[in-house]
């Protein structure tokens, strides 16, 4: 569990050094689970989709990914923005570390876009099926290459299943301002974040999707709300207090929300009734991001669901113990190498999609390919972890000879 409150205010904590704490195994575990579920959901039509988080309510693994990314960012980068850290290393170094990470995400996004194009173009060359040239928003590239080639590096033209990193990159660019505000006035940061989320739905704010109409599928103006909630969790935990306090009332409220969402989804007739009431509210003028299930604008049912789920799990001691168990180590390992695993999972998922589209009669593929891909993700994470340990290990000193120097060795 996060450390207990120190009794100091956020402003007072911001002036000192961040207390060091052990790595929370829940962060790696849930990020690893989110990455595995994203991979499985990116191979549509497989039976394992029924085991992912989206069957528990409205939110899916994408919301979990953004929440965990915000927590991880708060834990990793907060010490560099605290006053003592700024004096020692300078403010620019703190900002540059986040922007360097955002640049890495941008480069990976371009690489994934190029690989996605190559996979579907190769599939067309092999099968001559024209459908491969129109899948996952690739029609513009093959029918309108000039504008598309402009849009891809600008991040305005994004392919399906390859569109999470752009929003995450934008959020990391803005993260220094959010962290500095959150260190002094965390409640103000949350209020401004929620206000931006609300105004985004009211005025349909979004970044352009050139050359297509509309905006980004993962709208950063809306999805920043999940990221900021996670950032406040990591930021406060890194300073030694809890932004969202331990509260029996909040625990049971989150449990009630989770049960209510399950009933909304699965009790016959209830979902239709509640959706109709939301429709009436929307006609009465309530913003659509409160009265819909829209993913692009992070609708309120999805937002509330992931917050309730995150808070509920964070309060269970059983979850903390299971997260640290040896049997959970493969998933934690996947979570420790998030960007590498996400990029690898994206490529593997697209390859699986192409294989299943090319051979729809092969009924074994939906059962086998996701399992093979998940095992490959673990293997990739294991190789990365082993390489990191080898590089971090100190070099062994050269053996000292006990023999007297020979004449040839004398200078």
TrEMBL record:
InterPro entries to which the protein is assigned, alphabetical: UCP028704_OpgC
This protein's UniProt keywords: Membrane, Plasmid, Transmembrane, Transmembrane helix
Lyase is among the record's keywords: no
TM spans (from-to): 64-82, 103-126, 161-181, 188-205, 217-237, 249-267, 303-327, 339-358, 364-384
Signal sequence extent: none
Keyword Aminoacyl-tRNA synthetase: no
UniProt protein name: OpgC domain-containing protein
Organism of this sequence: Sulfitobacter faviae
Species lineage: Bacteria, Pseudomonadati, Pseudomonadota, Alphaproteobacteria, Rhodobacterales
């Amino acid at each position: 569990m996060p450390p207990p409150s120190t009794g100091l205010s956020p402003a007072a904590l911001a002036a000192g050094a961040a207390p060091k704490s052990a790595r929370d195994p829940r962060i790696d575990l849930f990020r690893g689970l989110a990455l595995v579920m994203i991979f499985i959901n990116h191979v549509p039509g497989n039976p394992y989709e029924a085991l992912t988080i989206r069957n528990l309510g409205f939110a899916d693994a994408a919301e979990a990914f953004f929440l965990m990314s915000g927590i991880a960012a708060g834990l990793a980068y907060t010490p560099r923005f605290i006053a003592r850290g700024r004096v020692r290393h300078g403010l620019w170094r703190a900002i540059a570390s986040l922007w360097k990470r955002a640049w890495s995400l941008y480069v990976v996004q371009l690489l994934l876009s190029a690989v996605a194009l190559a996979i579907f173009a190769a599939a067309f060359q092999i099968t001559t099926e024209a459908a491969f040239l129109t899948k996952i928003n690739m029609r513009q590239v093959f029918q309108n290459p000039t504008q598309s080639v402009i849009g891809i590096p600008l991040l305005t033209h994004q392919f399906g299943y390859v569109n999470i990193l752009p929003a995450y990159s934008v959020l990391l660019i803005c993260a220094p301002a959010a962290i500095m505000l959150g260190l002094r006035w965390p409640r103000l940061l949350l209020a401004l974040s929620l206000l931006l989320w609300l105004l985004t739905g009211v005025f349909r704010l979004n970044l352009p999707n050139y050359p297509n109409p509309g905006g980004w599928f993962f709208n950063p103006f809306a999805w920043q709300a999940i990221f900021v909630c996670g950032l406040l969790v990591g930021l406060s935990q890194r300073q030694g207090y809890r932004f969202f306090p331990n509260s029996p009332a909040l625990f049971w409220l989150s449990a009630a929300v989770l049960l209510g969402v399950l009933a909304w989804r699965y009790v016959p007739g209830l979902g239709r009734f509640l959706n109709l009431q939301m429709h009436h509210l929307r006609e009465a003028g309530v913003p659509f991001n409160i009265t819909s299930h829209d993913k692009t604008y992070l609708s309120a049912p999805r937002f509330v669901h992931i917050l309730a789920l995150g808070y509920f799990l964070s309060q269970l001691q059983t979850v903390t113990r299971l997260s640290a168990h040896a049997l959970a180590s493969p998933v934690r390992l996947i979570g420790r190498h998030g960007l590498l695993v996400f990029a690898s999972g994206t490529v593997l998922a697209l390859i699986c999609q192409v294989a299943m589209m090319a051979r729809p009669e092969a009924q074994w593929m939906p059962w086998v390919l996701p399992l093979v891909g998940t095992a490959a993700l673990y293997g990739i994470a294991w190789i990365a972890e082993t390489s990191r340990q080898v590089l971090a290990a100190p070099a062994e000193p050269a053996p000292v000879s006990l023999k007297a120097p020979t004449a040839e060795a004398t200078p």
